[in-house]
Amino acid sequence: MASVHESLYFNPMMTNGVVHVNVFGIKDWVTPYKISVLALLYEMTASKITLPERRRLNQLILPLQQGPDLTLGQFLQTVEECCPQTAYAVKLRLHEMADGELKDMEYFFSTLPTPFTAFDSEAYKTSVVGLFMRHMLLAYNKLSFSQVYKLYKSLQHYYHSHYAKPTDGQEGLPALVADDSDMDLTSAEDTVGDRTGKEEMDTPLHVSELRRGPLSQKQAEYFLARQAYLLKNDENKALKPAALQEELNNMLKFNPDFAEAHYLNYLNSMRVQDIFLSAHSLLHYFDRLILSGNEGKSNGDEGYGRSLRYAALNLASLHCRFGHYHQADLALQEAIRIAQESNDHVCLQHCLSWLYTLQQMKGSDSTVLTEDSVKMAAHFCLPYLASLGIQSLVQQGATLGKTAHKLMDALKDTDILHWKHSLSELIEISLAQTTSIWRMYGKSTMALQQAQLLLNMSSLEPVNFGVQQNNTEAFTVALCHLAELHAEQGLYFAVSEILQHLKEQFPPHSQHAKLWMLCDLKIQFERHMNEGKYHLAEPLVTAISALNKTEGLFRKAQVLKALNRSTEAYSILKRLQVHCEKTKCTEMVIRGMLATAGLHWESSGFSTALPLLLQALASARQHHLQSLVSRNRETDFTLMLGVPEKALNVLHEAIEPVLAHGAVMEKGRALLLTARCQMAVTGAYYLPADFHLAVLAVDTLNEAAAYFSKLNCKERLRDVHYLQAQLHHSLGQISQCNKSAMLFRLLDQELQSAAPPFSMRL
């Protein structure tokens, strides 16, 4: 089931995933790349361009201005994708300057449209183009002659390096601009005597997302905002963890007190589950935030205290994520104490939300705390926290056996709140929770509908950088449910496509990768078990246990049972039941009871199996677990074969939800049991008293065989062919009897394992 506590991470410096930065001491300067952008803007204002091309170029202007410097090849390729004609004109303009003389660059700057007079063009003073041109003209006019000459030499190297032949497998790279002290817009007129001894700075730039050197303030802001947004909304398009770490280290080398870079470093460390570096970066972020005086200048001492309490709150959330509950509790108590001293009700509500989340993660009952949190959040008009609390109550209610209509009514009320306040993240969580609840109740059709609704929903988040919000936990849960639903129907090709998408969308180092990893392992395990390949299923148990201890124990018991190691399987099931009763995992408790009853049944312990089956049936009904109720009834029917007429009547009532929502294996088992009941009623084991019902049993067995063939379940097919041979023999259909007997013989020889007597199997 989709959890809600991941949405509680709070940082006062983050808004919609974008970091608001203020880079101290990082200067702007004129670069050859900026001249290339200026040439593009000049050609846009001077030449005639079609409307679609102009529209595409307009969308390109801001990223080119604010983004990191590109090589000439990258720049021209980007422009050419929008408008080839303009790209050629820009290349020609740069060629005239780079292959000409210094006066050609001077002439280019002198012919630029003046932003204060270009009323009818894009270069008007209040436009984006106009502001950029004003900035560039101001910067260029403040350069001394020696600075202009160095800029010209850099432009030449920038242009010619694009056409230079690569050496040693490396592409030609543009030259570095002059020293930032030379290009500093605020520097005084340069002293020629200090600079005459300097060499021309022709060192090539390293091609990367950022330059290896100090960035301008706007470039740093753009880089941080872009990476933070991508980490939140589409991690695949963000830099790889190692590359982003390198860029942040480079940025912090030039400005160690850059607080927001430390926070992005924290987010990046969380991607790879690096507890030490993430805690280190988080503490550095709040230390720098306090030392920089940002909060204090605006809010006095209150700003200082605000940073401290949110630092403690973020530290508590960090420890919660890594399962360090004691450290999380200490940090949370510290945040509560500081918030109470400052009378900060908003921070206290976040603390209360994390408090009940921490109690849930410990396995304690947090219903009272959650209800208090919802009431207080509603009182202080905090719809986000109130909705999170209600979703948490729904999650607890589902495990405690609340009826479906009550849970759905609660989710419906929260959905109204979500749409009213445009809380798209909580809408996704709500849909993922609804999917999980329907799956738990055994309503696969409804679960499939809700999962598709989530996957086809357009995000309410502002779509920046061309990405959609689709890498959240809710999307992972929905896709995993979708994969499992397809696997249950034997559609393994579709399953492989869904899992491939999950692997691409959520790389192994990402936060939610464990969800699809566990889903993939469970699907592989079930497939091998259905096909009777226990030697392939057994190694998967260790991998499943590493991700989920409870699931791993249950799968281990299944393998041992299939290998006829009943004593070991029984020991593990007892241990599993004690653990699940302690953690209140009702669904797994019922599944354990069924597996234990199966062990007793196969060892002829009918008197021991029956109470377990009845107890499991009562618990499944109490918690509205329809799929487990159906499994219980199947086993009950097997016990009731002594009175087949009654078994068949009850089976007709119970089989409908199985055929409507059940997995292929469950459908096949139900139909196989139906055929056995029909054969018992007609006396088909000896003589067909009712020919019509006997023919119906043949059709039922054929349908069951089709389901088992879909899963390549040879053991079940062997049972079907055995019954078919008996039935055809009693009906006098010799050819069909011989065919079924031959198929049974072939499968029996292939499996090479003595099957238990059919009457003894569940």
TrEMBL record:
Task: Extract the Pfam families matched here.
Answer: ANAPC5, Apc5_N
What UniProt keywords apply to this chain's record, in alphabetical order?
Answer: Cell cycle, Cell division, Cytoplasm, Cytoskeleton, Mitosis, Nucleus, Phosphoprotein, Repeat, TPR repeat, Ubl conjugation pathway
Subcellular location, principal: cytoplasm
Q: What's in the GO CC field? A: anaphase-promoting complex; spindle
Coiled-coil intervals, chain numbering: none
Q: Which GO terms describe its biological process?
A: anaphase-promoting complex-dependent catabolic process; cell division; positive regulation of mitotic metaphase/anaphase transition; protein K11-linked ubiquitination
Name of the protein in question = Anaphase-promoting complex subunit 5
